[in-house]
Amino acid sequence: MITPDRTRSLPLQALAWALPLVRERGATLAAVVILSCLGSAAALLPPYLTQRLVDDGIVGGKVELVLQLCAVFLVLMVGGVLIETLSRLSYLKLSAHLLFGLREQVWRHLQTLAPTYYARTRGGEILSRLDGDVAEVQRFALDAPMAVLNGVFSLAVALVLMLSLSPLLTALVFALVPLQVAALILSRPWLERSTHAMRKESAAMSSFFVESLRAMKFIQASNAARRQEAGLRAHHGDYFAALRRSQLASLGAGGLQRVLSGLGVLLVFAVGGALAAAGDLSVGVVVAFIAYTTRAAGPLQTLAGVFMGWQRAKVSLERIRELAAERPTVQSPAQPVPLAHPVRGELRLDAVRFGYGTEAVLEGATLDIPSGTKLALVGASGAGKSTLIDLLQRHYDPQAGRLLLDGVRLDLVDLAELRRQLVVVDQEPVLMPGSIRDNLRFVAPDADETALMRALDLAGLGKLAHAGGLDRPVGAMAATLSRGERLRLALARAILQDPAVLILDETTSGLDLPVAQAIIGAVDRVFAGRTRILITHNLASVGAVDRIVELRDGRLVEPDPVRSAAPLLRVV
Ligand SMILES: Nc1ncnc2c1ncn2[C@@H]1O[C@H](COP(=O)(O)OP(=O)(O)OP(=O)(O)O)[C@@H](O)[C@H]1O
């Protein structure tokens, strides 16, 4: 579970978050560490051997030694390639485990957040956190310790070998390190700001795509395609400007590092060359040093890269922390009170108060719904009918008062059990991509083919299912089904869920009266004797009901005969 821990510094948080996942792959981590140290050692030996090759072999005239050292070079070269391949494969395994594990944690958290979070957060913002930001943190959490380990090991080995060759030249090479560190520290705010701007632009562009793709039919019908293209171009412009700033910052900081390490090479050339010319140093030592100076620049640059990577990861971690700080509005109780089976479906609202902000949507809402009641719930648009349903399905808890199912307070019932017993079919039910079977199995993974066909038959989709079979794809956003078919498919899902309470939230509104009545007829047949709540603006479409209640001024009251279109009421 991701939780922001303000007591820890950001780098520690990034590592603490990743640690349990790394621990699960202890053996792979050990392999990566050992192989990368072996690889570094294999890369550092050749310059040392070069000195022997030049001074003892070539200058000393020992042909046999030259050949022996060439054979050692060959072994080191082939061994180095093998070690690097194995090391990269192990790294890939560890890296994927970490990335997927971190992303699964964020996803798990997202699945607990309330509809209010999704109502106010742009889809692209969430996507870019799930994708780019998680990857950035993962890269840092794994790359940084590896790079530090590798860099420090390589530098230590190089330092020992260089000191054994020439302490003076070693001091010259390392004299520039403080300058390199100072350059990094100075470039830090620049790097951080530019990374922030880039991630923000990238999230805005993802949001643009997510929102436009969903609204494509509306964009086409409103002749807004050109304006959308211009919108995309504007996003591209902003993104490119931010990308250029970020690249300039990285190139500037990286370039400065390269110039400083290049200066080190020049110093070795100048001082080492002068000493060798004067006969105070062998040519082999100068050649080996030039190789070491360029190689020592590698680990130094890797360490500088860790620093720059940290600037990026810090921004991402901050964005993930923002997401982690969103707390779920409801949680399943640790010790749930079991419902007596079979669940009767008796509902009770007792002086319920709820509002999204300071203003109450429901205030003192009280109602008893005996088991098996078919209740019509009416109320003006915005009165709070859907909000009431969200409270019943426990997307939120009331700020005062109680809601009970079979006499048990909803917040004491296991959340999964509650949502199994209380099913809502919306006006625009959500259908998942895939086939009709996939959609039915989404709510009832264990149902067999016979149960699926029976549910479709009862929901009035028998013909369609028999014609195209259960494998008929419903298409992205269920675009291949008519609205009536989508509703019937949602009803078939509800039939498979077999709840004690069924709620239809304006399900049949906008349909032709005969179609609406046919769907309600199917509901009445299948759910006869069970509690049903039908939210509607048109009482004629929901058939005979046991009771009508109006939601007015936050309370549940007897309906206003004028506003409820009295002639249409048919209460049994
Ligand atoms: N996520 C939200 N954040 C803030 N306010 C909200 C949110 N959802 C709904 N509201 C507000 O709460 C009030 C009740 O909304 P609700 O959707 O429950 O009404 P409704 O009776 O179902 O309306 P309709 O019949 O038009 O569907 C409205 O004023 C609405 O603007």
Automatic annotation (TrEMBL):
Pfam families: ABC_membrane, ABC_tran. It is found in: Cell membrane. SMART domains: AAA (SM00382). The lineage of its organism: Bacteria, Pseudomonadati, Pseudomonadota, Betaproteobacteria, Rhodocyclales. This is ABC transporter ATP-binding protein. Its main location: membrane. It is a multi-pass membrane protein. It comes from Aromatoleum evansii (Azoarcus evansii). Residues 30-312 form the ABC transmembrane type-1 domain. Keywords: ATP-binding, Cell membrane, Membrane, Nucleotide-binding, Transmembrane, Transmembrane helix. The chain crosses the membrane at residues 27-45, 65-83, 147-165, 171-191, 265-292. It comes from the Bacteria. One of its GO terms (molecular function) is ATP binding. Residues 347-572 form the ABC transporter domain. The keyword Cell inner membrane does not apply.
